[in-house]
Design goal:
Blueprint lengths: L14 E5 L5 E8 L3 E5 L5 E8 L1 E5 L2 E5 L4 E4 L5 E5 L5 E7 L2 H8 L15 E2 L2 H13 L6 H19 L13 H13 L7 H8 L3 H12 L3 H18 L4 H8 L4 H12 L3 H13 L1
Antiparallel strand pairs: 1-2, 2-9, 3-8, 4-7, 4-9, 5-6, 5-8, 7-10
Helix pairs in contact: 1-3, 2-3, 3-7, 4-5, 4-7, 7-8, 8-9
Pfam families: AraC_binding, HTH_18
Organism: Deinococcus humi
Protein name: AraC-like DNA-binding protein
């Protein structure tokens, strides 16, 4: 759909769902044409990512228009509306992070502040837009909980650090070698389990946002990417041991064969089946 004018064929049915990660996160993705949102509020933030068309909404005493690539942000309890700017309507992704989640990106774990991050209503930041879309898309696909949480928390950190009216003075990522080694060991020992970032943070006593920064600084990858590399190594081991691609995927912690195949080829340049076939040829020669 990217790069094409919004047409009848390009419109998507509206999908709304709730993810269990991050304390429960409501998400939406779809197209609207004639629908007009009445004046309403949310008890959470509302973050919209405009993909196609144009949407106009009233908020904070002014009228705003979202076009492709722009981010619309509504604060908790702010009255706002929403409708199509043209007859083409609009397609967007939306999600509703609660206040504690944004506060977690705004303050350190041991900071007792209840500051509410204040942000612009419309944000033009291509890198942030792509980060938020990537995080949102992870909740539509067979991504692990760790991937979903990590991508969303990283994108929200980007949001508040670059665009909050009073940017947080976050401490430098803490160097906690013992805690980080514990996280790395858990990812390696329980590679097939769908561990969450909140679980890893609770194990170490670190703020999930702090854990993300510290782990990446120490090991060069965020926890979800490190987990992926561990799973890929085990998938290769299972394939060398004669497992089918389907079984190797499940044993290594991937959602299914296509999930493994996508990451395997991106990382190693061949498909799992090609790798398996090559191993068999070597063993039989």
């Amino acid at each position: 759909m990217s790069g094409h004018r919004l047409t009848t064929h390009a419109r998507m049915p509206v999908q709304s769902w709730r993810a269990l990660e991050l304390g429960g996160l409501d998400l939406l993705h779809g197209s609207f044409t004639t629908h007009a949102f009445a004046r309403h509020t949310h008890d959470t933030y509302s973050i919209g990512l405009l993909g196609h068309g144009a949407m106009t909404f009233d908020c904070q005493g002014a009228t705003h228009t979202l076009r492709p690539g722009l981010i619309g942000l509504i604060h908790p309890d702010e009255v706002h509306t929403g409708h199509a700017e043209t007859t083409d309507g609009w397609t967007y992704r939306n999600f509703y992070p609660d206040v504690p989640l944004l506060q977690g990106a705004f303050t350190d774990f041991d900071d007792a502040s209840d500051a509410l991050p204040r942000l612009p209503v419309v944000i033009d930041d291509p890198a942030l837009f792509q980060s938020l879309v990537t995080a949102h898309r992870a909740f539509e696909e067979h991504a692990s909980s760790l991937t979903r949480e990590s991508l969303m928390r990283a994108a929200l950190t980007h949001l508040v650090r670059r665009h909050a009216f009073q940017p947080p003075a976050l401490r430098t990522a803490l160097h906690e070698p013992g805690a980080l080694r514990l996280v790395r060991s858990q990812l390696e020992d329980e590679f097939a389990r769908n561990v969450t970032l909140d679980e890893l943070a609770a194990t170490t006593g670190l703020n999930p946002f702090t854990l993300l920064r510290a782990f990446r600084r120490t090991y060069g990858l965020p926890p979800h990417a490190y987990q992926l590399q561990v799973r890929l190594r085990h998938a290769k081991r299972f394939l060398r041991g004669g497992e089918t691609v389907v079984d190797a995927a499940l044993l290594a912690g991937f959602a299914d064969q296509s999930h493994l195949g996508r990451h395997f080829r991106r990382t190693f340049g061949v498909t799992p089946q090609q790798y398996r076939r090559g191993v068999k040829n070597v063993l039989s020669s």
